Structures are given as C-alpha cells and as structure tokens.
Amino acid sequence: MTNPSLTEAYHHCRKIAQSHYENFPVGSLLIPRKLRKHFFALYAFMRTADDFADLPHRSSLERLTLLGEWREKLHSIYKNEQPNDPIFLALQDTIRKFNLAIEPFDLLLDAFEFDACGDVKFETYDDLHWYTMRSAEPVGQLVLALFGYRDEERIAWSNDICTALQLINFLQDAGDDLAAGRCYFPAEDCHAFGIENTADLQNSSQTPRLILYECDRIQSLLDSGKPLAESVEGRLKLELRAVLAGARFMLGKIRSMKEEIFYEWPKLSRFEHLHILVSALRNSDNKQPIS
Questions:
Q1: Which helix (H) or strand (E) holds 110?
Q2: pTM for the full predicted model
Q3: C-alpha distances out from residue 171 to 32, 48, 138, 183, 291, Å
Q4: Which domains does the chain have, with CATH numbers?
Q5: Residue 171 has pLDDT above 70, yes or no
Q6: Which of 53, 59, 128, 166 could disulfide-pair with 116, CB 3.0 to 4.6 Å?
Q7: Which phi-psi region, left, alpha or beta, contains residue 5 (left: φ > 0; alpha: ψ -120 to 50)?
C-alpha cells in the first residue's frame, strides 16, 4: 500500500487484528467504539513483529534483521518522520493522540528479538519474569494509557495481571512449544519436582504437581492484580472483570487437565465465553449501551 490515507491505514490494521485469535481485546464488544481503531493500530504493530520473530525457514539473523528494521520504523515516527507503512501511519496517529511513550514498544521488541534468537529456555522464574516484563506487561501499560491511566499503582496491578495471562498462555501452548524447542517451565521449578530435563516433562509422574505449582503462582498474580478492575471506570472495568473471569476459568481447566495440556489444547467453550461476558456485565453500575 503506497501513500495510504489515515483511514486506509486504520482499516489495514483492523484487517490484521480481526484475522487473528488472541487474548488481546482488539475485538471485544466492551472496548468503546472510539478506541477500537487505536487498539487495532497497537495490535497490528505487535502482531507483525511477533510474526517476524517466528518466521519459519528463516535464520535467526534474518528474523533479527526484520525486527531491527521494525524498530527503526518505530523510532522514525517518534522523530516525526512521515511513514509510508500503513501500520506505522496509524500507530503514529495513535501515539500522538494519547501521548504514548516509546519505552513499552521498545520492550516488546526486546521480547520478540529474544524469541527470534531461538533456544527459548529459562533457568529461574526471575529469568522468565524478565521476559514477561517485555512480552506482556507493556501491553497492559499501553491499554491503560488509552483509557487515561498512568499511575504507578494501577500499572503494578496491570503488570501482575498481564504476566499471569502470559503464563496461562504458556501452559495452554505447552505441547506445541516443547515440540518447537521452547520451554516456559523454569528449570529451577522442574528440578524442585525431580524433573531434570525438558524431555521428561511429558512423561514424569511429577509433572501434574509441577503444573499445579505453576497454577498456584498464576493465581497469586491474578489475586495481586485484582484491585485494578475496581479502580477504573466504564468499559475498562467491564473488560478487566471479563479478563479476570476468563483467566479463572482457564486456570480451572488447566488444573483439571494437568499433564493432558501437552496433548490437548485447553480452551473455553462458547457457553463459557458467554458466561464470562454476562458475569462482567451483571450488577454493573455502567448502564451505557455497548456500541
């Protein structure tokens, strides 16, 4: 797309967002209509960079080169240069309207570059948290900023929720990740349960205990971040209630499946999604119709 208009640029981002299934709330009916295009712009930037990091049949160097070029484009729009790429045209408009800092975007790209290098393994939980501080927490910070929240307390709650959601995704995708040479179970956790290498994760008698241990950690993070939902107003309150309810549902499924998560992808049914939406709306003091 050469020299796109701003409207065309946002439409392009919307097509990218709506062609993928993600936990990022780009398609949620609880997101106000006036903000949706800005969610699309953020998502298109992240989704495309994530795709670069995972490109099949490409070397790590080629992936890193693409991500380096993506970072250069990001920095150029912060220098008020005019972009030709529709994603960056929309993103620049969103950044200006909401005065978004560059740091969350740079942290996200750090995580994608880590992925692009391959051999994704973590010795300790602190190492894994280093990663989620880049891959997940900036997303929450950007979403809060779209709604006008920038204080440290809400950001800290958001960080805990976002890391918890990322860890849930790692458990959901555990089988596929192991097959692809990625392991998001910290080695120190595995060793604590007598599991000495990743090859033993799928057949160790201690794997169910390890999975429950990881679920307990995630639950603690969700509990820590829970005050965020009631500290905000309007649609964001409803969205966060739904996100937390969905996370609780998914954790319950993972706890019941235990080691079966390596062979079957845990997911929510349509009824469960509806239940989560209804529970978020129930007893709400927000009477504004969804639009």
A1: helix 103-116
A2: 0.89
A3: 31, 23, 21, 10, 34
A4: 1-118 (1.10.600.10), 119-291 (1.10.600.10)
A5: yes
A6: 53
A7: beta
